[in-house]
Amino acid sequence: MSLKVVPICGVSTTYPHSHSQLGISYFFQNNHKNPLKFRVNSATFRKLGCLTVKLGQSKSHLEDSKLLRPSGSNSRNDATQIIKFHKDLNPLPKPLSITDLVSNGSDGSKVRVAYKGAPGAYSEIAALKAYPKCETVPCEEFESVFKQVELSLADKAILPIESSVSGSVHQNYDMFLHHRLHIVGEVQLNIDHCLLGLPGVQMEELLCVLSHPQVLDRCKIMLNKLDVDKINTKDSAGAARIVASKGSRETGAIASSRAAEIYGLEILSKKIEDYSDNIARFLILAREPIIPGTNKPNKTSIVFTLEEGPGVLFKALAVFSLRDINLSKIESRPQKNHPLRIVDDGNNGGAKYFDYFFYIDFEASMAEPRAQYALSHLQDFSCFLRILGCYPDRFLNINAKLQEKHRQWILQKEERL
Asked: Distance of CA 165 to CAs 168, 195, 209, 284, Å?
C-alpha cells in the first residue's frame, strides 16, 4: 500500500505567545472552533523542518513522534527513501508572522520580487501591481526565479500560471514539486500587446517583428496584415531591448507599453492581440507560508495523486462538494518519473494507465473545519497530498465588497420608499 502523507509546516510552540510570533501550528492548536487540532513536537520540527503526517479518520489530533511507514511494508529501502525525502526538504523556515506581514508595508517598499524576463516583462508589471514600490529582480529562466527566493536573494517570486487565451503554464505547475516555496498570493493582469518600433518609424516600414512565440501567435491577425517575418525571442520585453540596441528601422517588437518606456521605443499600435479580453493569472511565492484566517475569503491550492480504482477521481472531488466547497481550478499533469501504471485486467495480464498529479484550487481557508475535514477525507483515496499554499482570494474579496455595496444600495432604496 502506498504511503499517504501531507506536509504540514509549523513552528515550535515554545516561542512566547505574542501574536507577532505565532506560526501556523499554534494558530490551529489554539483555534477552539477547529475540530482537528494540530500538535507539533518542537524537537521533531527542528530536526526535519517539515512535518509529514497521516491524517487519521478518527483521531482528534495528529501524532508526530515518528515517521510513518507504508502499512504492511518492512522494506528498508522504503524507509530510507522516506528519510531521504525529508532530508531533501530541510531546512524549512518558520511561517510568516503577523509582524512579518505588516513590516513589509502595503506598497511592498521593502520587498524584492524575482520574475522571469527582462525589465518591462508582464511578470514585472504583475509584481508592481502586487507591490507598487518593490524592487524587481529579473531572471532568465523560471528555475532561476525559484532559486532567487530559496537562496534568500529575493523575498518573493511571481510566476504566470494561466491565461484566459492560452490556458495553463504547465512548466510552472511541474516546478512546484521540485521546489519548496509556498503560494502566498495571486495577481490578475489584463494583457495588452503593443507593436513597438524605433522613434519615427511607420508600421509599413517593418519587415520583421520579434517577440515570444506565444505572443506572436496571439497577434497573428495584425502580423498577417503587415506581412512581416516573425522571429522568436525568449521573452517579449527582451525583444523590445533587442530592437532598441540593434537600431534597425525595419525591425519591430511586440511587448508591453512599459517596455516601450524603458527602452525608448515608440508605440506604433496598441492592443493588437487577436482576443482583446486576455487576462493572465500570476502566483506569488515565498519561502514561508502565511497564516490562514477566516475573516476574509481565502483560496487553498493542493496537489495530490490517487490510488487506482473505479470512480476514484469522482470520489476525490466529491469530498469538496459534500462540504459546499467550490473548486475554482482543476489541472492534471502526468507523473514524469512513473507515467504508466500496469494493472492486471484478468484477460491479457496487464493494462497500462497514465498516472497523474492533480492540482486543485478550492475556495476555503485551511483554518476552516470543513477544509480540514475535506483533506482528511481525501486521504482515503490519495497516495500523496501536498498543500501548496493558503492565501487571500482577491476575486472573492472584490466580489464580496461589490455585493455589500449592492446590499447597502437596496436598503437605502427601500428606506426611501
From this structure: 9, 19, 21, 21
251 touches 57 (CB < 8 A): no
Overall average pLDDT of the 393-401 stretch: 56
Beta bridge partners of 414: none
331 and 417 assigned to the same domain: yes
Q: Within 93-141, where are the H helices?
A: 98-103, 122-130
pLDDT reading at 372 higher than 60: yes
Burial 293-317 (b: 16+ CB within 10 A, else e): ebeebbbbbbbbbbeeeeeeeeebb
What are the residues facing 284 on neighbouring strands?
158, 185
393 falls within a domain = yes
Domain total of the chain: 4
Q: Which of 8, 3, 82 is nearest to 39 (CA)?
A: 8
% of the chain residues with pLDDT over 90: 53
Question: Domain check: are 103 and 147 in the same one?
Answer: yes
- DSSP annotation of 277 reads -
Name the more confident of 185 and 15: 185
Please give the pLDDT value at position 9: 40
Residues 417, 349: Cα–Cα separation, whole Å: 76
Q: Distance between CA 363 and CA 400 in Å, rounded?
A: 13
Are both 226 and 151 inside the same structural domain? no
Q: Looking at the domain assignment, is residue 164 inside a domain? A: yes
CA atoms within 13 Å, Cβ hemisphere of 60: 5
- The pLDDT of residue 35 is above 70: no
In this structure, are 216 and 149 located in the same domain? no
pLDDT value at 307 more than 90: no
Handedness of CA 249, 255, 260, 263 (dihedral sign): negative
Q: Say what the pLDDT of residue 292 is.
A: 82
Residue span of the structural domain in which 218 resides: 194-269
Alpha carbon 387 to chain centroid, angstroms? 11
pLDDT at residue 102 in the model: 39
Specify whether 249 is located in the same domain as 233.
yes
* Angle made by CA atoms 185, 187, 192, in degrees to the nearest 5: 165
* β-strand pairing of 251-255 with 208-211: parallel
Helix (H) or strand (E) holding 42: helix 42-48
Looking at the domain assignment, is residue 359 inside a domain? yes
Please choose, from the candidates 276, 302, 268, 265, the residue with its C-alpha nearest in 3D space to the C-alpha of residue 391.
302
pLDDT tens column, 45-99 = 333 233 333 333 333 222 222 323 334 444 444 444 433 433 333 333 344 443 4
